[in-house]
Amino acid sequence: MTRVAGSLAIVLAAGLVLGGITHLAMVLAMPMLAGNTAFHRHAAALSPGETRLLVAQQDGNDVPFADPAVAMAVCAFDITEGPLRVEAPMPEGFGSLSVHGRDGTVLYSVTDRTAVNGVVTLVVMTRQQHDEALAAGRSDEASQELRFVSPRLQGLVVVRALAPYPSSLPEARERAAAMECMSAND
Amino acid sequence: MPAILCILATFAIAALVGVTTVDWATSGRPPLGALSIGPWVTWPALGGRDVDPYARAITVRSGALPLGTGEGIEFLASRDDAGQPLHVSCNYTVSGSMPAARAWTLTVYDPSGGTQGERAGLTSAEVLRRPDGAVDITLSRRALPGNWLPLPPSGRFILALRLYDSPQSADPAAIEPATMPRIVRGDCS
């Protein structure tokens, strides 16, 4: 009797310890495990260089807890082959740009204060691509653009355009959707 | 007990414990790193690179696109100033001056993060102000004059206050609590 109780206790203790390890491993692996991530949802529907407007209103299924006063557009990137160049025209009121890694981390974010002539130009590149760009040394372009060395190769670029009034929402959507994502090699 | 049974039972317990605790810990709100100012809660690390694994797991699971630290701050409230859960059967007044920001929005969500109808939020540009610059926003299921936000038909709800281009987004802990709006419950039906 005591032997059965003893082995049961060992089974329970071992199960809990192994369960704890499973828990930690699953939390860390969640970016790979989850099938409903923002990257999965949007990257699958996008061809390279395509920008898609996210509709947060009404159905509310695109992005949970999205601000209905803000128009959002998204484009997916993979900078393995070459840097990504983003040109996002900013709206009258408030606009911003953010780079999200495939794993859901916000890697970089800026507001329209960084815009030159109303357009934020962001180049997402790897460390090596950045060094090559520095070596090539076209400084006249460099002053007009933001260069971001991304620690992730794949992810999403999101532009936000605030509509101060409900009537300005169509214009904000137009601005957000006007973001252009292209290969910087061309 | 035979050894094989012990091993199988161990793995069954491990799987059960692992999966249920992960599901519990990665649905809902991040368990770590919350900053509360009155009823308002924010997760400052969510908008940057040093996000903890739990918050990141919650973000990817929900499919959310968090606001970056460089863009602004997002506060959520699911309780009023007295600590009572926000419920649509009551009227609420959200009042006060707002923390410094170029623009802010106040939005009503159902607990799953969806919005109802055309009028789910107010922005700083369209809101009516008192002579001293403060705002009073009424939340009610019935239409009311002034700054009014309709509530969903049933259940609890969540309020989101977003401060866009706020000088405090780098350090939300420095926000003076008195500048955050108060959520006061009115009459209930």
Automatic annotation (TrEMBL), chain A:
Record-given protein name: Putative membrane protein
The organism's taxonomic lineage, starting at the top: Bacteria, Pseudomonadati, Pseudomonadota, Alphaproteobacteria, Hyphomicrobiales
From TrEMBL, chain B:
Pfam families found in the cross-reference section: DUF1214
Ranges for domain DUF1214: 72-167
Entry-linked InterPro entries: DUF1214, DUF1214_C_sf, UCP009471
Entry-linked SUPFAM superfamilies: VPA0735-like (SSF160935)
Superkingdom per UniProt: Bacteria
Record-given protein name: DUF1214 domain-containing protein
